[in-house]
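Need a sequence for this fold. Nothing fancy.
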């Protein structure tokens, strides 16, 4: 079983992903995939952190000291956003081959498009719901929270659209889209879990 979750910022997508992973006994990967990609590539994890779900930020990586590049045979001209995306994609595929997984973001639905038994979900929520989450998490006011949401979602959408050739958040790319602000994270996870069980029965 492979569950891929796209999500709006502040929608509770990560929490829902963790609840689903616990429900079905899956390994959970959100930012954890960056660590796997770093281990697989031999590059410092900060290379992946600074371009995480962002396109066009690669130049900032060269501000890191050369010693952080690590022991490998890659020359600087082989560093690019695309090469880091490839390393990350390889790490996602390797994890998916090892067992049941829940992946949050990072174009996992596209990377694993040829894998069987995948379900692609998109978690959305009202702006009030998302802004409140960001305000609570970051300790900022409503205006700042909305700016954080707008900026990060723009970067997230640009990244997804570039690498997948699809449109981030477009319902045609997912098996199920859910507004988590209606039921809340826990009950939304229960709703999705029931959907997954029924979907698996139909597929069998």
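Here you go.
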């Amino acid at each position: 079983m492979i569950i891929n979750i796209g999500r709006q910022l502040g929608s509770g997508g990560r929490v829902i992903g963790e609840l689903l992973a616990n429900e079905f006994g899956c390994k959970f990967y959100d930012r954890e995939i960056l660590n796997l990609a770093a281990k697989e590539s031999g590059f410092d994890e900060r290379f992946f952190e600074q371009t995480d779900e962002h396109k066009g930020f690669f130049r900032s990586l060269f501000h890191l000291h050369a010693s952080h590049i690590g022991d490998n045979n890659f020359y600087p001209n082989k560093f690019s956003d695309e090469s880091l995306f490839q390393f990350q994609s390889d790490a996602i595929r390797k994890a998916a081959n090892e067992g049941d997984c829940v992946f949050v973001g990072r174009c996992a639905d596209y990377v694993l498009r040829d894998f069987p038994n995948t379900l692609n979900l998109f978690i959305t929520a009202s702006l009030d719901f998302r802004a409140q989450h960001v305000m609570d998490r970051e300790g900022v006011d409503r205006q700042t929270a909305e700016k954080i949401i707008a900026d990060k979602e723009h970067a997230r959408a640009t990244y997804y659209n570039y690498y997948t050739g699809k449109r981030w958040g477009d319902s045609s790319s997912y098996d199920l889209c859910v507004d988590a602000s209606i039921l809340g994270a826990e009950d939304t996870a229960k709703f999705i879990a029931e959907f997954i069980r029924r979907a698996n029965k139909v597929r069998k």
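For context: The beta strands are 2-7, 27-29, 101-104, 118-124, 176-179.
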